[in-house]
Amino acid sequence: MLLHLDKQFSPYKGERIEYELFRFAGGEPHIKILTKIDASTPVMITSRIKDFRDIGDLLTAVDALKNMGINNISLTIPYFPGARQDRINATGEALTIKVYTDLINSLQLNKVIIFDPHSDVTPALLNNCHMINNHEFVKKITQKLSSNLKLISPDGGALKKIYKLASYLKHYDVVECSKTRDTTTGQLSGFRVYTKDLNQQDCVIVDDICDGGGTFIGLAKELKKKNAGKLYLIVSHGIFSKGLDELKKQFEHIYTTDSFKTNEPDDQLTEINLSTIL
User: What pLDDT does 92 receive?
Assistant: First the structure.
């Protein structure tokens, strides 16, 4: 059976569990499961976690199910929160990814399904983790684009993933790029594209997350200086915290999934439903 904590996000077909979820005046989450469930029934919870309130909803939902005698519980959480905070850069910082994984691990779930995590740290810290990479997602898109695309790796952190992707897709060359980020301010600078001339070839930047979009806007400008053709952006998790206007000025088209939120598609944005991937 399926318990969709975000009712806009339902990547699986099956019998749904009805529930009431609400918050007390003090902000505390509370849930009441309305569907009668046999204790031997396996349950899959799906959740898009955007902040700590969503974690609270998840914790209370699992507790309610366990109070009904249900222990065969799995979780699909495609965008794993805190995945970018996977290292300590300065004294006094939290290792946020471990805060989240410790909370999820404490639930003792049968399986936790995640989609295209930021790094290997998340699946390493998460118990019973089943990771789905971005290969099929990207393949669905690139098959509809030029057969002569260049795959653009936005920075050094993405290199290992982009070369695995290129091997899976078989027919695409990789162009390596880099940037400089001030870890104290988050300011980006020093974008570089390590090729002399792209000869008007179409290029697609592939990455896991687009938050504000500064990385992709900066790289797009450098790619155009290197004589790039049409530019495309493929990101697994579209947060788009600063909107899409500036990104649309640089890219022919932007592709994402509904892993973080449900976006309104338009003539420059295509959202792939995760039901076709998970």
Answer: 95
- Pairing of β 269-272 and β 43-46: unpaired
Cα 252 from chain centroid (whole Å): 22
Residue located via tokens 């806009």: 8
Token pair for residue 119? 């790094």
Predicted structure pTM score:
0.94
Instruction: Give 275's DSSP letter.
Output: G
Identity of the residue numbered 87: R
What is the per-residue pLDDT for 265?
86
Phi, psi angles (nearest 5°) of residue 15: -75, 130
d(CA 147, CA 26): 56
CA dist 244 to 78, 236, 247, 255, 266, Å? 22, 15, 5, 12, 11
Rounded distance between C-alpha atoms, residue 232 and residue 252, angstroms: 6
Over residues 97-123, mean pLDDT? 97
Q: What is the pLDDT of residues 68-96, one digit of tens each?
A: 999 999 999 999 999 999 999 889 999 99
183 pLDDT band, cuts 50/70/90, is low
Given a contact cutoff of 8 angstroms between Cβ atoms, the answer to whether 116 and 136 are in contact is no
pLDDT score recorded for residue 184: 63
Dihedral sign computed on CA atoms, order 22, 8, 235, 264: negative
Entry field: residues in the chain: 278
Instruction: Report pLDDT digits (tens) over 198-218.
Output: 999 999 999 999 999 999 999
- Measured CA distances, 111 to 10, 127, 134, 154, 190 (Å): 18, 8, 19, 31, 41
How many helices (H) and strands (E) the chain has is answered by 7, 14
Q: In what order do the strands lie in the sheet containing 203-210?
A: 188-193, 173-181, 150-153, 203-210, 231-238, 253-257, 269-272
